[in-house]
Amino acid sequence: MYSKVVLMIFAAVSASGCGTVNTTFRDDAIASNKLARWHSHCDSVPRIYSGAVFDYCTLNAEPRHGTGFDGYPSASLIALDMALSGVTDTILLPYTIYLQRKHGDIKKSSF
Description:
The chain has one domain (16-107). 63% of the residues lie in helices and 4% in strands. It has 6 helices and 2 strands, in the order αααβαααβ. A two-stranded antiparallel sheet has the order 1-2. Helix 1 packs across helix 5, helix 2 (19-25) crosses helix 4 (50-59) and helix 4 runs antiparallel to helix 5. The chain is flat. The model has no long low-confidence stretch (mean pLDDT 84).
């Protein structure tokens, strides 16, 4: 029973796309393009606590109709990912401080 719950949580986080992975370990263009595609009201995302901020920016976007499995994550999945990203961002804090000083914020694409 416990393994089913863990599997469901893992599936939910995977479906929404981990904010920390999108902003810390992938190319900046991926997070930048997602913010633009989802019409987020955020113009940039700082690298420090970038996963949680990225998730906030996806919540702070124009409403969209999605179930979380069609490329547009649902609000409940984003909220779950925001909590998990906050924990992961705290663990990665020394690395993200370095990235912030070296590269600055992740800017939203304009198209």
